[in-house]
Amino acid sequence: MKIALDAMGGDFAPAVTVEGAVETVNELPDTEVVLAGDEPALLRELSSKKYPQGRISIVHATEVVGMEEPPLQAVRKKKDSSLRRAVEMVKAGQADAAVSAGNSGAMMALALFLLGRSEGVERPAIATEMPSFENPFLLLDAGANVDCSAENVLQFALMGQRPRVGLLSRGEEPSKGNELTKEAFKLLEKSSVNFIGNIESRAVFLGHADVVVCDGFVGNIFLKTSEGLAEVVLKMIRREIGASRVGKLGYLLMKSGIRNFKKKTDYDEYGGAPLLGIRGTCFISHGRSSPKAIKNALTKAAEFARTRAHEAISAEIREYHASGKTPVAG
Amino acid sequence: MKIALDAMGGDFAPAVTVEGAVETVNELPDTEVVLAGDEPALLRELSSKKYPQGRISIVHATEVVGMEEPPLQAVRKKKDSSLRRAVEMVKAGQADAAVSAGNSGAMMALALFLLGRSEGVERPAIATEMPSFENPFLLLDAGANVDCSAENVLQFALMGQRPRVGLLSRGEEPSKGNELTKEAFKLLEKSSVNFIGNIESRAVFLGHADVVVCDGFVGNIFLKTSEGLAEVVLKMIRREIGASRVGKLGYLLMKSGIRNFKKKTDYDEYGGAPLLGIRGTCFISHGRSSPKAIKNALTKAAEFARTRAHEAISAEIREYHASGKTPVAG
């Protein structure tokens, strides 16, 4: 598998992206990484690294899309951005997947513009894997579409491709929720999806669903609230414990346990999230990604491309449309 | 202060509500509690308790509003519910505030029906106090209004009555968000509110805002995600730590630190949340409230009524309307 990496994307690029690429080719025997970005800067980063010859290459790009740049502007004005180069390689069949830790909105826009939507898909979504007390679950949409229709939410469920789909809401009864979730509930109930009904956050974290669907604004609030709270909870526990000598000793003894917990909930471990509903494989990774997170995103993208997962998703959507289950108007 | 308590509301009523009332009158010298509910059941609960004579009384009610009952049905059909009796006492001037750990939607509906909205308020909101790494912050709306307008969100900010108001969104720039938050951003910017802009969950938990506003669906997701995750994080840490003997010892040594952390983040400590924008003082408390949570809700409600906080909120809204800052149409 050959993965194109936007080597200039993310808060710590290109140092972290190059390091992630090097770790990937050192660990995965059958993977190549193409770094898209400023060639002199990338050569400098690579010069001190050890990796199998020929498994990392560079495609020069003169521009970088800023983290806060409006996506459409990035598409229209930055014709030579590292992000665009990475996606273009997928379009041209020169890479099996593209990965970026940069501007996720811009990547979605470029993926839509260059690769296009899968047949029948109205809105591609970001599918983020998150840990629970039991197995991880998939959250979608995690932020691509801030204003969604009920039909969009149903498609997210179809694209999720896992059993036990829950609709994130504010109570378990069908009547609990806003206009969007009430309408989406009806569509999900009638669909072929294994729909378990509305689900609240607590049940999500206990592992009661494999896929959690919602509009991208709510999904992003859910994701960021989880990440932010987990970070602050650990900070608060450390502060409380630091206040006593006995507590400090206890913390030292617990360290490996806390490390295991962190490992299981660490964003780095989850690495990247695919854009689902795109004709091709594109993964986004957190702006604050570490080399390990980049490596995990590259690894996941390679796996996703190898299993041709995006084709399975297209088939699912086609089947839904063919079944004649046309959505009920709101 | 005389507080009317819906003694039949909540998952563990009336045992927990009566115990909470008893603790309240034993601790607060100038407070009376009126228990609304099934008199024989309440007398049974009270028979074994010690408390100052005359400080707890009973108003008999034959019906109970179920936790999942549709609010309008509760208003129309249950004319003799304990919840209704409690709110009616506020209306009749027989109590300074009403508190319920029961159906929050039904309490909002009854408060609107019996007491009415404060002048100029479009939608009353639930204002929940939550802990952060620094000071607590107020989240509103925490769940009363699932579909809101930008003007509603602005009013939530005015009702919050604290400095540093943030708009919960998916990025800090004004352009980040959905249609509602983009419009609310414009209104907040022009208003008299000390608006600090969009805020993401992480910054909220670090204590960067005193008031966090959003629509009630998103607010409820934020609240439940925080509660659910905090619970599951502790569960996961305990599981990881229980896996090693040294870790277990460490946990024992850390116990007081963990206890302090829990105390600071415990829902029980925050107790109750006022309905803001109502002509009168009504507090809702978690369905799973402990006696301590009930006591804290009663105590907060008494304080809220004593300082006539709802009148200050009405004044704020009146002033906003008088200033001629009429909202800009979307």
Largest sheet of chain A: 7 strands, mixed
Model regions low in confidence, pLDDT < 50 over at least 5 residues of chain A: none
What topology, given as strand order, has the largest sheet of chain A? Answer: 3-2-1-4-12-11-5
Mean pLDDT of chain A: 90
How large, in whole angstroms, is the Cα Rg of chain A?
21 Å
Strand fraction of chain A equals 15-25%
Largest two-chain interface: A-B, 64 and 63 residues
> What structural category characterises the helix and strand content of chain A?
alpha/beta
| Percent helix range of chain A | 40-55%
Q: Strand tally of chain A, please?
A: 12
Number of helices in the DSSP assignment of chain A: 13
What order do the SSEs of chain A take from the amino end to the carboxyl end, as H and E? EHEHEHHEHEEEHEHEHEHHHEEHH
Shape of chain A: globular
Q: Gap between N and C termini of chain A, in Å? A: 44 Å
Quaternary organisation: homodimer
Description:
The structure is a homodimer of 330-residue chains. Chain A contains 13 helices and twelve strands. Chain A has 330 residues and is α/β, with parallel strands linked by helices. In chain A, the strands form two sheets. Chain A has a seven-stranded mixed β-sheet with strand order 3-2-1-4-12-11-5, sandwiched between helices. The first copy, chain A, has a five-stranded mixed β-sheet with strand order 6-7-10-8-9, with helices on both faces. In chain A, strand 8, helix 7 and strand 9 (195-199) form a beta-alpha-beta unit. Chain A is globular. The termini of chain A are far apart. The model of chain A has no long low-confidence stretch (mean pLDDT 90). Chains A and B meet through helix 8, helix 9 and helix 10 of A and helix 8, helix 9 and helix 10 of B.
